[in-house]
Amino acid sequence: MSKEYVIGLDIGTTSVKAVVFDRCGKVTVESEQLTKSFYPQPNHVEQDPEALTSASVFVLKDAIQKAGVTPDQVAGIGFSCAMHSLICVDENGRALSRAIIWADGRGSDQAERLMSENGLALYEKTGTPIHPMSPLVKLLWMNETGYEPFQRATYFMSVKEYLLLQWFGKRIVDYSMASATGLFNGATLDWDMEILELVNVKKEQLSRPVPPTEILTGLNKIIADYIGIPEDIPFVIGAADGQLANLGSGAILPGEVAITAGTSGAVRQWANGFRANEKHETFCYMFTEETSIIGGPTNNGGIALEWLKNLLNYQGTYEEFTKEAGRVGPGADGILFLPYINGERAPLWNQHARGNFFGMSITHQKEHFVRAVLEGITFNLYQISEALERLAGPSEKIYVNGGLARSPIWLQMMADVFGKNIYVSESHHNAAWGAAWTALVAVGEADSFEDIKNNLPMGEVIVPNAENHKVYQSIYEKYVRLAADVTKYF
User: Fold this and answer.
1) Are residues 234 and 262 both part of a single domain?
2) For residues 287 and 306, what is the distance between their CA atoms, to the nearest angstrom?
3) Cβ(397)–Cβ(256) under 8 Å?
């Protein structure tokens, strides 16, 4: 029986998903379990690593059962995972702390001080911006505050590394997850000893870096029996969700940009080698020995829309809520929204940033605010894209994925603001498909990463409205000036 299926396991911030694909990238079945974040103190955001590991076991078992496939039909299983998490682990491989995730801001003071001292020099070596999201800053906070799990820890690892340790008994990390720590030298593809000394961590406390095609077998027998798969089924370590979302959307050539807009958002482009931006505007995370992803993440994607919906106590669906924006034209009759309600990464890299509505009048109604929020999210992505173009050249083709890509109004807004065709994937599981394709490459069932372009189920193409683009260019200039003026108050 041919191995006609491949599985992507995507461990995200809001959910864990297992997606069964056919060899052409068509979704056969998906299983999803929502995850919970904890907020024990202001600016502290954590998740339970045991719950994430259990959710991964559950969705994998559920997806395989729902698909009705047998293990001998599965070519492999690839991992995708959100970046920047950090867990303190004891000598027996058990968690001493919750996973401190990317949204955590407890290290803001350490990040500001580090940036004022030698932060740029560190950034140039790692490609990870100096920001509370990074494990570098989290470790600095732990060391300086006497965080008890840090003092007791034998190892430090991300959520994905912790899962791999529980499932396979191995301490390994792929290049992209390692790159996102701020501890990894992008030029040497190894942990940077100077930075480790800064945070009082030894190299042996970190996992061994490996390429994304590293194959793992010998799955824990209890887990294998529960899922209903053999212990020797090939798992492939894969990469971080950002790199894999680009791969899964086909944005892997020069000039091809992938924009993800879910709870948060990101603008990313494939690149050769390691490139850090001298202005500290973008990240550069390695994927293979030769390739990397450059781009910028934003804290404020769909979360800003969710905030407004809750604030207005809107009882309809999200689809109905976004349709409200269609009742007014571009520019929301003069309202501009700076979407920094959750602090901000790119383009500001300032966790103290805060959102603003500008230009309100007594005539404005809820539809104006809905449109202003959607436009603010889009302008922010456009500003990040401009920074990326200064490093990598102009964007020629834009692929869009994520939860907001389900909104026709927002997709048209994207096309109008960027002034370019927007290519939308048929499925919204780009990271999972990227993980699955990486598994196919690793086990020899696909010849190259580039060949994924022949296996991409594409959806519609959104064409920009030329008149709207002109209007938005004028509004965007005002947005940039306003953002520059307001940031001095953060």
Assistant:
1) no
2) 32
3) yes
- In this structure, what CATH number is given to the domain that contains residue 110? 3.30.420.40
Structural contact between residues 437 and 453, judged by C-beta atoms closer than 8 angstroms: no
Whether residues 157 and 265 share a domain: the answer is no
186, 218, 242: which is the final residue of a domain?
A: 242
CA distance 295 to 280: 11
161 domain residue, yes or no:
yes
Nearest alpha-carbon partner for 251 in 146, 114, 396, 57:
396
* Tokens coding 235: 């798992």
Q: What is the pLDDT of residues 407-443, one digit of tens each?
A: 999 999 999 999 999 999 887 899 999 999 999 999 9
- Angle at 376 (CA atoms; ends 373, 377), nearest 5 degrees: 90
Question: Position 79: which residue type?
Answer: F
**CA R_g for the chain:** 22
Single out the residue of 124, 135, 141 nearest to residue 160, CA to CA.
Answer: 135
Which tokens in the block code for residue 42?
Answer: 């202001």
Measured in degrees and rounded to the nearest 5, phi and psi for residue 269 equal: -145, 140
Tokens encoding 238 = 């894969």
Cα-based angle 385, 387, 392 (whole degrees, multiple of 5): 85
Q: Are residues 256 and 316 in the same domain?
A: yes
Please check whether residue 437 lies inside any domain of the structure.
no
Domain of residue 317: give its range: 250-425+457-489
* Domain C-terminal end among 186, 216, 242: 242
- Beta-carbon contacts of 339 under 8 Å, excluding residues fewer than 6 positions away, are 298, 300, 304, 355, 373, 376, 377, 380
DSSP class of 401: E
**Tens digit of pLDDT for each residue in 258-288?**
999 988 899 999 999 998 877 788 899 999 9
d(CA 88, CA 150): 6
Q: Are strands 422-425 and 397-401 parallel, antiparallel or unpaired?
A: parallel
Per-residue pLDDT of 104-113, as tens digits, reads 999 999 999 9
Q: Tokens 């994998």 — which residue?
A: 60
DSSP category for residue 200: T
Position 1 scores a pLDDT of 44
Q: Please state the φ and ψ torsions of residue 99, each to the nearest 5 degrees.
A: -80, 120
Pair (272, 397) in one structural domain: yes
Please tell me the total count of domains within the chain: 2
Residue 354 CB-density burial (10 A; 0-12 exposed, 13-18 middle, 19+ buried): middle
Q: Which residue has the higher pLDDT, 325 or 271?
A: 325
Please tell me the distance from the alpha carbon of residue 239 to that of residue 446, in angstroms, as a whole number: 17
Q: Are residues 45 and 186 in the same domain?
A: yes
